[in-house]
Amino acid sequence: xxxxxxxxxxxxxxxxxxxxxxxxxxxxxxxxxxxxxxxxxxxxxxxxxxxxxxxxxxxxxxxxxxxxxxxxxxxxxxxxxxxxxxxxxxxxxxxxxxxxxxxxxxxxxxxxxxxxxxxxxxxxxxxxxxxxxxxxxxxxxxxxxxxxxxxxxxxxxxxxxxxxxxxxxxxxxxxxxxxxxxxxxxxxxxxxxxxxxxxxxxxxxxxxxxxxxxxxxxxxxxxxxxxxxxxxxxxxxxxxxxxxxxxxxxxxxxxxxxxxxxxxxxxxxxxxxxxxxxxxxxxxxxxxxxxxxxxxxxxxxxxxxxxxxxxxxxxxxxxxxxxxxxxxxxxxxxxxxxxxxxxxxxxxxxxxxxxxxxxxxxxxxxxxxxxxxxxxxxxxxxxxxxxxxxxxxxxxxxxxxxxxxxxxxxxxxxxxxxxxxxxxxxxxxxxxxxxxxxxxxxxxxxxxxxxxxxxxxxxxxxxxxxxxxxxxxxxxxxxxxxxxxxxxxxxxxxxxxxxxxxxxxxxxxxxxxxxxxxxxxxxxxxxxxxxxxxxxxxxxxxxxxxxxxxxxxxxxxxxxxxxxxxxxxxxxxxxxxxxxxxxxxxxxxxxxxxxxxxxxxxxxxxxxxxxxxxxxxxxxxxxxxxxxxxxxxxxxxxxxxxx
Length: 643
Description:
Blueprint: H1 2-35, E1 38-39, E2 51-52, H2 55-67, H3 74-96, H4 100-116, H5 127-148, H6 154-172, H7 176-196, H8 205-219, H9 234-244, H10 246-261, H11 274-280, H12 285-306, H13 311-333, H14 340-346, H15 350-360, H16 363-386, H17 394-417, H18 429-454, H19 461-479, H20 481-489, E3 498-503, H21 507-518, E4 524-531, E5 540-541, E6 544-548, H22 553-560, E7 564-567, H23 574-587, E8 591-595, E9 638-641
Parallel strand pairs: 3-4, 3-7, 4-6, 7-8
Antiparallel strand pairs: 1-2, 5-6, 8-9
């Protein structure tokens, strides 16, 4: 009977804090506007209109008013008191604009109080080292949440997800008092989000970000055994709080590294956070925030699951999640958010130049990734056949003996076959064939090693078959990750490029779509296809609808809001081209065609450039009209105007 009563209390506490925040936030917003506590738009900030500050006051009041009437322990009072002190420091900063070192002193004082009363991360066997790590944890997470507060609803939403994950961990661990604290905190953040989501009418301010960050960081210290559950290793114990707060940690680490590579100070503000780069790739602000919510939810779910997993499974799961975040970070690192002047100036510094050169050569990342993938595939094959890894198991002893040699052989084979010569963003079926060849050759080489070194005594043939299949799947999936990200996130010009209607849904149309999509410098955004083949009408190609060529083209241009029309085929009859030109002229959309040759060919009657190799139209007289040169490349298709 304890479970229903406790769960009812936790839900009631969260609901009470939610209602308190819903009622208090409008009053705080009105008060902030009255006293002039308003954030004005700035060049290095994201919001575009004056927005009330002091939202942290509402979060704090809603949390504390609910928490103080709940049962408490000595540790919970320490967390409440220290977090309140950080709230006061943030509130002073909102009005007086404290210097960074002054805020740091306040954070260190709060951290000192928490550590003094015995709340430390049990990540090592040394208490002194644990204290030092805990100081870094408390100060780091507090500032990470502050840095994450860069887009409407992002910081508060991610913090709410983290609070819910921690509350679930506490509840499953039997720590009901701590679960009540986090449920109240979750409810307060949820109520505040009603006013803070896009478009936000109030920001939390430094008083909110410092309170929220420190409260999350310090409550994570209250988990018994670090929240590790069945997984008692240092990695699993460390992973629970890190997974819960993965997004603030990832964003801060990523932004700090990118700013250093650009020669900027880590504390310098700017539109270079993870959320900003997602928007630069074409996502709306809401979709960018919700995508980060998704990663936060995944991290929280893993944190809850890890405590129930066996050690080897938890390590493999954490490694997989780290790979996903790593690939995302590498992809987002390619988004240009700094000026060429800044980057050029930064590259004059020896250390920055070395790091930039190192980061440019992504082969190091690929090799490191493949080491992890090889280990994961080999481990997964043994796990599927022999169950949990056990020290005394002869099968797992063979696994450990052969693992280093297998990693070496497979990496060497990948290098020899040519796995590291390709470009991820252009991965295609030819690469899948290459990966299949690399995995097959490396698996045969592995078998030869096992036969000669161990005479295949005690080994399972099935394990090596599974290993090859899993490695091929992992290798292919990682290489196609960039293409998947390009498809799901869009391209940098997706919101500002000219909208293009592609005439022709065949091989030429597909080639043209790839050219316009991959070459962002062209500044075009394909929106639909048109084709004269009635069998293609109503179909979808690369996510874009295919319209019938029998529809009035002028009406189709207006309906799709196309700025231009591109002809992807040179097999259109002369009369058809005339009709297209006439309809597009009516709709006010220029017509262009891809030229694949360097020519000086013009149609004296129509007055537009016409490639002479169009077999369906007799080659017109060659009239050297200088202002209508067709200038193109044999290596890249270039759209040419008919006008």
